[in-house]
Amino acid sequence: MLVSSEGPTFSPEIISEIIGYLHDDKKTLRTLGFVSKHTLHESRHHLFSTVDFLAPLTGNAYDVWQDFDRFLRLVDVAWTSFTPAIQCIRFLGFYGKCADHHSIGRGIPLARIRTNLLNVKSLRLGSLNLTSIPSYILDLVFQLPIEHLSLGLVYGCNATNLLDLFRRFPPLLRTLDFNRMKFPSTLRLCLLVESSVFHRPFRFETLDSRSLLLFQSVWDPFCYNIDIKVKSFWLQLEYDQLYPHEALFISRFLQRIGSSLENLKISHREYDPWINGFLDPIHVSQCINLRSLEIEELKWDDREDQVPDSAVQKFLSALPSPRLVQEISIEIAFSAQMLERRLIMLLKWSSLIETVQRLFPNLNKLAISIGTRLRAEDPNPYLDLLRRVGNVRDLEKKGVIKLDVIISHSLYI
Fold this sequence. Notes:
single chain; alpha/beta; twelve-stranded parallel sheet; 12 strands; 31% helix; globular; disordered N terminus; F-box domain-containing protein
C-alpha cells in the first residue's frame, strides 16, 4: 500500500512536548522510536536517561552484577547508539557482601567503555551495603564525569570504606546527597588517617545529622576550617539521645554552614517527647537565607504541665531572616486517649498559627498536620477547631494554609 507523504506536519517542539507527556509510557516510547530520527532521539532520552540496577527481594544479587556486566558489554558494542542518552546510573537494594566470583568483570574493557558513557553526570547508591559493590564497578563509575553523587540508606560506612569512597571522588564532582548513612556502632569513627580527602570543598544538596555524625573527626568547625555548604539539612536522632559531644558538634556545624542553608527539617524519635534540645535557637542563629522549615512529629504528653509550643514559638522567633521564609510545615501528635482531651490540647496549640502569620509576613504556605493512630477517626473536629482561628478558613481557600489529619505510626500517641 502506498502512503501519501502529504499530511499534517508537527514542529520538533510539539513532538518533544508530546513525548514529554509520555515519559512513563515505555511501550509507546519504544514505538515512537521507529517513526523518525527526531522521535528516536527524544524517546531515547526518556527511556535511557536513568539506568537502574535493582537487587531482587529474594535471590542472589550476583545475578544483577551479571546483568551489569552484560550492560557494559552492550555499551562497548560498536553499533550501540543509546549510550549518549544515559545521564544517571542507580544501584539499589544490595545488602549482601559481594562474592568475588571469577566471572564478574572479567575481560571488560573499562577504559573504552568510559568513552561511551561521557554524559553520565549522576550516580545514586541507595539501600545497600558499600561492601556489596564489586570494586571494578566503583573503579568504572568514579572515572566517569560524575558531577552529582547520592548516598541514601547506605550501610557499612566504616572508616575503611569511607576513606576508599572519598579517595575515588572525581575532580568534577560538584554536589552530594548524604542521607541515613549507617555504621553498626555508636562509637565515634576516626577518619584522621587520611583527613585531607575530607577537606576539599563540598556542596550538599541534602545532608542529615545521622550521616554528619560519621564525619565528626574531620568536619568539626572547632578543629578545622571546613569549606562545606548545605542547601537542605535534616536534623534527626539515630538512637535514644544525642551524646553531649554530638549535640555540640551538630550545633557548631549548623552555625558554620547556616548561611548556605535554605531548607531545614527537624524530626524526633517516637519515644522522645521533649523537643527543647532540638529546637535550640542557637542552631539557626546563622541561617540568614532559610526559605522553608519542617518540624515533624511534635508530641505533647498531657500528663506533663509544660506546653512544648512555647519552645516552638521561641525557636521560630529566633530565625534571623523571617521575611525570606516562604514555607513552614508542622506536624502535631497528642498522646491523650479521649477526643475531648485532644481537642483541648489542640486549642492551646492553635495560637501557634497566628504567631507564625505574624512572624513571617511573606509566607506562601503553612501546613499543619494532626497525627492520629486511628484510621477510622473523624478528622472534622480537629479541622473545624483550627478553622475558627483568625482568618485560617479564608487562607485555606486561597491555598496559603493547608490543614490535614494523618495516620501516624508513632508509638507515642
